[in-house]
């Protein structure tokens, strides 16, 4: 843990990795529409197989910043790129990276926002998180108990609070039609998005809520939980199966994520899950 201790606090991770996240997001945006899918045949589903030059180059951009400031951390990265071998595996502190969340549908097919994500976990709980939405030109970050911020592409970070503005709701790709019908009946515009974008949905202008159903049997992955810290620090409410609080521990099972700022919106999202026969 020496690197993070030397840099004093997780807040330093957020501050120092913001520049690398900006560079990675700019690279992803530059490559958008210019790279093709080169499937990882070791994976079973098309979503998991999706891989582009964008994924690998964006991950290396994030790793460059990580090597500069925090070379002693453990690493869990989505892709097996050259820079991964410079870091140890297992133990605290752990940095988790997803270079392009939503590669297949959001990045290659341009169906809703994709995300560039990096988070720092200590004791299997996130203490620092950064998420960029390159197509929207947005960056969000947070440190545990330190509040959340947002920034435009090249602008300064500013404190942010989640708010129920607009009528859009971000949902998982492949959300059951029955669930979407409930949301639309409530006057909401349903927008498909990657998991990282859904996790910060109420922080995005014009978006009031997010609803995710994990495609995997094991539920929302460790990478899919990076944005939860940002939403919590911004004052959003996050719930999972059975109305439980969405877990801070990255290993606690959670198949669903409901995120909003008010009881009324959370109730609408619950009805949508019920319509999809998911409690």
What is the top-level CATH class of the largest domain? Answer: Alpha Beta
Largest β-sheet summary: 7 strands, mixed
Helix content: 25-40%
The main sheet orders its strands as 1-2-3-4-5-6-7
The outline comes out as globular
Poorly predicted segments: 1-8
* CATH-defined fold name of the largest domain: Fructose-1,6-Bisphosphatase, Chain A, domain 1
- Figure out the total of helices: 9
Cα-to-Cα separation, first versus last residue: 40 Å
Can you tell me the CATH architecture of the largest domain? 2-Layer Sandwich
Overall pLDDT, averaged? 92
CATH homologous superfamily designation of the largest domain: Fructose-1,6-Bisphosphatase, subunit A, domain 1
**Helix-strand pattern, N to C?**
HHHHEEHEEEEEEHEHEHEEH
> Mind telling me the C-alpha Rg?
17 Å
- Strand fraction: 15-25%
State the secondary-structure class.
alpha+beta
Domain unit count: 2
Q: State the total count of DSSP E strands.
A: 12
Give an overview of the whole structure.
This protein has nine helices and twelve strands. It is α+β, with helices and mostly antiparallel strands. It folds into two domains: 2-159, 2-Layer Sandwich (Fructose-1,6-Bisphosphatase, Chain A, domain 1), CATH 3.30.540; 168-275, D-Maltodextrin-Binding Protein, domain 2 (3-Layer(aba) Sandwich). A seven-stranded mixed β-sheet has the order 1-2-3-4-5-6-7, sandwiched between helices. It has a five-stranded mixed β-sheet with strand order 9-8-10-12-11, with helices on both faces. Helix 2 (10-31) runs antiparallel to helix 4 and helix 6 (177-185) packs antiparallel against helix 9.
């Amino acid at each position: 843990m020496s690197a993070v201790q030397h840099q004093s606090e997780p807040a330093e991770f957020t501050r120092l990795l913001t520049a690398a996240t900006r560079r990675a997001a700019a690279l992803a945006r530059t490559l958008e529409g210019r790279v093709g899918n080169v499937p990882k045949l070791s994976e079973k589903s098309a979503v998991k197989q999706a891989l582009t030059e964008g994924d690998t180059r964006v991950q290396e951009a994030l790793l460059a910043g990580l090597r500069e400031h925090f070379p002693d951390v453990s690493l869990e990265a989505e892709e097996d790129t050259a820079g991964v071998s410079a870091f140890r595996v297992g133990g605290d502190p752990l940095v988790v990276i997803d270079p392009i969340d939503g590669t297949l549908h959001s990045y290659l097919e341009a169906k809703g926002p994709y995300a560039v994500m990096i988070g720092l976990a200590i004791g299997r709980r996130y203490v620092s998180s950064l998420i960029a939405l390159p197509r929207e030109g947005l960056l969000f970050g947070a440190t545990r108990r330190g509040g959340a911020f947002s920034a435009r592409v090249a602008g300064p970070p500013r404190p942010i609070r989640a708010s129920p503005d607009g009528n859009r709701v971000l949902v998982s790709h492949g959300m059951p039609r029955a669930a979407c019908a409930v949301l639309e009946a409530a006057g909401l515009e349903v927008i498909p998005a990657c998991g990282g974008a859904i996790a910060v949905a109420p922080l995005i202008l014009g978006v009031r809520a997010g609803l995710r159903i994990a495609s995997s049997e094991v539920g929302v992955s460790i990478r899919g939980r990076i944005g939860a810290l940002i939403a919590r620090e911004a004052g959003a409410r996050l719930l999972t199966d059975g109305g439980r609080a969405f877990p801070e521990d990255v290993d606690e099972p959670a198949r669903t994520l409901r995120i909003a700022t008010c009881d009324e919106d959370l109730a609408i999202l619950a009805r949508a899950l019920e319509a999809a026969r998911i409690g």
